[in-house]
Amino acid sequence: MRANRSLEIGTGLFVLLGFAALLFLSMQLPANGLKFSFKKPAGYDVTAQFDNIGDLKVGAPVRMAGVRIGQVTRIDFDTNTERAKVWLRIDPRFNQIPADSSAAIDTEGLLGGQYIAISPGAMPTYLTNGSRILETQSALVLENLINKFFATQANSHGSHGDAKESK
Amino acid sequence: MSDGARVGVLELVRKTGETGIFFVRLLAACVPALGRPRLIIAQIYNAGARSLIIIMLSGLFTGMVLGLQFYDVLNRFGATAALGTAVALALLKELGPVLTALLFAGRAGTALTSEIGLMRATDQLTAMDVMAVDPIRHVAAPRFLGGLIAVPLLTAIFTVVGLFGAQLIGVQFLGVDHGIFWSQAQSAVALKDVTEGVVKSVVFGTVVSLIAVNEGYHSEPTAEGIGRATTRTVVASSVMILLLDYVLTAVFL
To answer: Do B179 and A112 touch (CB under 8 A)?
Structure first.
């Protein structure tokens, strides 16, 4: 009876562990899966609005001079301003960020993920819980740049051609 | 064709047929075997729970080495942010199912073969037959089902442990950002990739368990015969896993 009991407990533990792993793989890992939010990192919340957030994702780091100071906790669309609204959770150690600092969305490396870079301002007041970063710079979308480049190329070629024809 | 080659080919065909017939008999015996879940639970414990340590250790080190290798390669392109994606997809789609199945064949498949082979050699299976107890239903089917249930669960555990192993190396030691590692992994993995891993693990579990049980059941009733059957289990399982892995990947892509 004792041996039987420990066998059942062992099997039960194994099966539960296996299903927990399967659940993690099928719900937590895929992008379209259901996410449980674990403990939120400590710190204070700051919001910023962007015209275009590009490929920014929840969990992306917030950096200042390249040093990680927090992370993106939520991304939403603001229907009033018709811009993307991003919530940043800043580590409480960094509580002296000037209130007129600006936020930009940068890309890490060539194929890397995007992050928010904060450049400090000069005001003597600091960002606190609930404050908003006013000055923002949108993500650089490479495709748009290339399109623009080719558009201008085509235009200049076009005008060139017209000039020739008119001659 | 030389005589040796002809005998070899004939033996391969015979073995395939033997396994196929045994598979059908096994499937027919699986339904009544479900009526005695205690036998199956004991086999899940034997095949699954007792393989847990080796699976978790292998998963951890596989993940860690993937973290190192992918970091090195991606670093050359300045794309270490893609580490999470690379590791998650590699583990989920390939290494998790394949390595788990190979380890399972070595750890549990051999044990199954030698156990059933010894039963055959000591006439236990014949004795069951004489008592009108179907040995396929009472010995082979619970072991087959136990393996079939254990392999997908072990694969999931292997993959998760591997992911955290890669995170340990990539984030803690090599300095990839924690948020980027997981958000890149999550954005790249679709439910289809998880399904691919699960389907592979179920197929591998079926094949490894079938080969192990069949080899044991049809082993020569001598000490030497059991040894040969055990070797055949490992060789046949490994080859079949890698072969089917290619076929399944081609189907899924």
So the answer is: no
Radius of gyration of chain B (CA): 21
- Render each residue's pLDDT in chain B as its tens digit; 253 residues: 678 888 888 988 998 999 999 999 999 888 888 888 888 888 999 888 889 999 999 999 999 999 999 999 988 887 888 888 899 999 999 999 999 999 999 999 999 999 999 999 998 988 988 998 888 888 899 999 999 999 999 999 999 999 999 999 998 898 888 878 888 888 888 888 899 999 999 999 999 999 999 999 999 889 899 999 999 999 999 999 999 999 999 988 7
**Pairwise CB contact (< 8 Å): B180 & A7:** no
Judged by CB atoms closer than 8 Å, whether chains meet at B49 and A14 is answered as yes
Q: How far is B220 from chain A (nearest CA, A)?
A: 32
- Nearest-by-Cβ selection for B156 from A8, A18, A111: A18
Are the C-beta atoms of B176 and B86 separated by less than 8 Å?
Answer: no
Q: In this structure, are A1 and A80 located in the same domain? A: no
Same domain, A88 and A137: yes
Global model pTM greater than 0.90: no
- B36 closest CA partner among B145, B120, B115: B145
Reference B139, options B161, B122, B153; nearest CA is B122
Name the minimum distance, in Å, from the CA of A139 to any CA of chain B: 16
Give chain A's domain count: 2
Same domain, A131 and A53: yes
Cβ-nearest to B79 among A29, A33, A109: A109
Q: How far is B244 from chain A (nearest CA, A)?
A: 22
Q: Can you give the residue range of the structural domain that contains A16?
A: 1-30
Alpha carbon distance B209, B141 (integer Å): 10
Cβ contact B82:B181 at 8 Å = no
Coil, strand or helix: which one is B243?
A: helix
What is the bridge-based pairing of β-strands A132-133 and A44-50? parallel
- In this predicted complex, what is the ipTM? 0.78
Residues A6 and A54 placed together within one structural domain of the fold? no
User: What residues of B are in contact with residue A36 (Cβ under 8 Å)?
Assistant: none
**Which of A29, A36, A69 best probes binding to B when mutated, by most B CB atoms within 10 angstroms?**
A29
